[in-house]
Amino acid sequence: MIVVIGAGLAGLVAAVKLAEGGERVVVLAKGVGATHLSPCTIDVLGYAPDRVARPLDAIADLPADHPYVRVGRDAIVSAAAWWRESMGFVGSPEKNVLLPTAVGALKPSALVPETMAAGAGSDPVCVVGFRALKDFHAALLADNLVRAGIEARSVELDLRPEGRVDANSLAFARGFDDRVFRDAVVRAVSPRDGERVAFPAVLGLDGSAWRDVQERLGRPVFEVPTLPPSVPGMRVAKVLRERLRRAGGRVLLNNVVVGAERAGERVTALRVRVGLREVTYAADWVVLATGGFASGGLELDSRWQPHEVALGLPVTGVPAEQRFVPEYFAEHPMGRAGVVVGRDLRPEGLANVLVVGATLAGAQPWKEKSGDGISLATGHRAAELILGARATTAPAPDAPTESSPAEAR
Amino acid sequence: MASLETDVLVIGGGATGAGVAWDASLRGFDVILVDRADLAEGTSGRFHGLLHSGGRYVVKDPVAAEECVAENVVLRRIVADCIEDTGGLFVVTPDDDPAYGDAFMEGCRKTNLPAEEIGVDAALRMEPRLNPGIKRAFTVPDGSIDVWKTVWSLARGAQQHGARILTYHRVIDLHVEGDAVTGARLRNERTGEELDVNAGFTLNASGAWAAQIVKMAGIEGVGVIPGKGIMIAMNHRLVNTVINRCTLPADGDILVPIRTVSVIGTTDERAADPDDIPPTQEEVDAMLDDGERLVPGFREARALRVWAGVRPLFQDEKAGAAEVDTRDVSRTHAVVDHVARDGIGRLLTMSGGKLTTLRLMAQDLVDAMCRQLGEDRPCTTEEAIPPGNEDGELYSIGSRLRAREKTMQDEQLICECELIGRSKLEETMRRRETTILDDIRRSLRLGMGPCQGGFCIYRATGIEHGLDGIDAATASDSLRDFLQERWKGMWPILYGDQLRQARLDDWIFQGLLDVEHLP
Question: What would the pLDDT profile of A212-260 be if each residue is shown by its tens digit?
């Protein structure tokens, strides 16, 4: 049994790849992953520290402990190819495109959902917003695009899903899945010749409304990600979990890994808190994908000691003093804190544990726009490494699992 | 250059200055109140929110205690909507001397402070999170006071009586003619334009900055000692009663429940420059340990924010003692008479004091002015009610939620943490004629909740940009400035859940919106 800890992008990628490679996989997670927060563009590398045009070429100049340097350029290429083919994304880590954000900044991304692809380019834009959606401000986006040299205008519609004056992205996505609401939106928008049309990223729970809206408006339509909950992130999570299920894997939420049993350099089992009970899962391999400080995979206590919460791995990169500096947008001393691993993604002294995603040391995901790229590349690489190791060694028979809670379910 | 005429120029828009403007305008003076920044942005906006019963001072500083005892009652009457009647406890912790409790009760008796000793069991029933090792407990009529509401209420009241309020106007010179101050030159900090105010009288209510102000009239040596104190806001009402350590005033000896948070304070250290008082890690660590002593498990709770304020302690050179422990300086206030001291007329400085006695300080200062002017205009602030407090009902936690529930289905909620609706936000932005989101924070508590603006800052920026005449460049600057302002109070105390929150906010502002690279 391979246990993946964490159901965010890195964990789900590793789990799907392993399950589709024939392995028995279970994902144990405290809750839904950070996909629900993510814009869901795969930003591979946007700034280092200047704006990056060609991410793959810029990787050589990253610090030696950066996750990309650890896994290597080929791993990024192969993860990106796998993602593009299997997830319906467009683009490549060879070259960044610039997509407008919800404030109207132009952010470098490498792989993007097809619903967002028309955001790249310099044609005029008509930004459509909704008075009832406080998490997206069309006029601000449009006016900042104008400041960046892109012709843009905005319209704000007073159409309300279910009549609500205060509706979030999810309510609007459900609205767009409703033919009547969608028709009303299409009727209310009149794009001009040559214009692209931008919407908040709420065009249907599965994105199918995007295609319909685009066809009926007769102009390129693109989604702009906005504040959580992230509808595009939910789509990705749903697709990955469905693929995992079809390949025989499972995701168990409310399963909090609180420790491990070890035999020498191997973790043999995980101690898991499920509600008020504590149970044990036998594990041949463990992929640790619990996220960083934002997701709770890493913690800093009030005496300034960092902890990796699931397995108690050492965390590096937290200075005893001056962990941050007073300027918000500066580079912060603990900005790259995390768990250090080798080229095989294993922390020192553990033979069957691989660490992936935001738990890893060496990157500044938000500052350099690399978070989802690292999760994809390392999650995918971890699966490749495990599959490779299982192919070359006689697989150890799974520990008896008849009494394990995973089987009991 | 433009110029304005007024009877009274009040310098400093903190609690004292707002109180002075209210008092003087009620007495029929024409008033201009100026501040280099927003109202209550200095010391007043950086305290813990305690409405003193006086208990803190009964042993060491009985004059200050008596003033608090009286003013506590007056403020509850005149600014009721700004005050929560939390009550207070003085507790003897295992580290404190139980005998101090006797001195404390004796002090309360002498100063007419209505204190009562209660059993330890009763105290623990009142506040179950209190250190169970406490040895004695005393109840006192402490409360908590929302300083921004108070200052704005007084300022609006003054405006209704004709006062003009110039925020973001820095005094860059005092005009002296012969042996009198005749006004000041101001610089509009937002436009850079300069402006003269010709004033019949100038009242210096600039607190810790008082010496810097009178220096512009050539007056040297006014001994205002900036006393730095740090405070930490915790994201819970860890207690619902003000908790004081029953000991001589010390660091970290008070925990004040106010609005949706509780604030622990404070330290006391002489600061060289009142504008340079960053909290240090040692101070933060010490304060968390002090919190642990009052409420075990304090370190496991979520700390939202840390800040430092600077007390305007007064120790004139003529009184000697150049080097003193700032904690030993009396907390009472004094009017500095520059005629007697420096031979300069039509100028008075308020020194020392504390928020709880703001009304009395204002009265004393305006009385002194009236004496110098030979005018007999009695003070009416003990009875007059400034706007917003007319119904006389004290604030209670949950009142915003109660109000919100009525409009839940009709209006967008822009700040979920502090329950701020869209119309209130738009109305405040228009009324205050500011694009500085931090000004809006002081009026509405925008961005002061657990997410420290993670969600509402983007929304407020978009709404601000939708107002007439606010362009995208201005709105984007507001967004960046507010992010920086929120960060300022968070970074020295980022651990636990608040670090997690800050990383989520990074995710939004850097990973999702890329605010850093806006044009």
Answer: 999 999 999 999 999 999 999 999 999 999 999 999 999 999 999 999 9
Q: B150 and B17 in contact (C-beta within 8 Å)?
A: no
Note whether A207 contacts B: Cβ–Cβ < 8 A: no
Look at the domain A117-224 and name its fold: Rossmann fold (3.40.50)
Reduce the DSSP state of residue B337 to 3 states and report it: strand
- Let me know whether B277 and B423 are in one domain: no
Total domain count, chain B: 3
B245-262: average pLDDT? 92
List of E strands, B151-193: 164-166, 169-177, 180-188
Q: Where in chain A is the domain with CATH 3.40.50?
A: 117-224
User: Could you say which residues from 371 to 410 on chain B have a Cβ atom under 8 Å away from some Cβ of chain A?
Assistant: 409-410
Fold designation for A2-93+234-321+331-408:
FAD/NAD(P)-binding domain (3.50.50)
Residues of chain A with CATH 3.50.50.60: 2-93+234-321+331-408
* Average pLDDT of every residue of chain B: 93
Distance, CA of A201 to CA of A169 (rounded, Å): 8
Rounded CA-CA distance B202/B110 in Å is 37
Which H, E and C letters describe A64-84, residue by residue?
A: CCCHHHHHCHHHHHHHHHHHH
Q: Give just the sign of the alpha carbon dihedral B375, B380, B384, B386.
A: positive
Assess contact for A140 and A172: CB atoms under 8 A.
no
**B-proximal residues of A, 161-180, CB under 8 Å:** 165-166
* Spatial distance between the Cα atoms of A8 and A251, rounded to a whole number of angstroms: 11
Q: Which of residues 349-388 of A touch B (CB under 8 A)?
A: 365-367, 369, 371
* ipTM metric: 0.94
Q: What is the dihedral of CA B273, B276, B280, B283, to 10 degrees?
A: 50
**Looking at the domain assignment, is residue B384 inside a domain?**
no
Q: What is the pLDDT of residue A399?
A: 45
pLDDT tens-digit profile of A296-320?
A: 999 999 999 999 999 999 999 999 9
> Which residues, 6 or more positions from A210, have their beta carbon under 8 angstroms from its beta carbon?
A115, A203, A204, A221, A223
User: Which two three-digit tokens encode residue A341?
Assistant: 């691993």
- Domain span at residue B308 reads 79-143+225-312
Residues 6+ apart with CB under 8 A from A346: A353, A354, A355
From the list B413, B414, B517, the residue facing A105 with the nearest CB is: B517
CB contact under 8 A, B471 and A143: yes
Q: Are A337 and A306 in contact (CB under 8 A)?
A: yes
Same domain, B264 and B217: no
Examine residue B57 and state whether it is found in any structural domain, yes or no.
no
Evaluate the omega torsion of the peptide bond into residue B492 and state whether it is cis, within 30 degrees of 0: no
**Min CA distance, A119 vs chain B (Å)?**
14
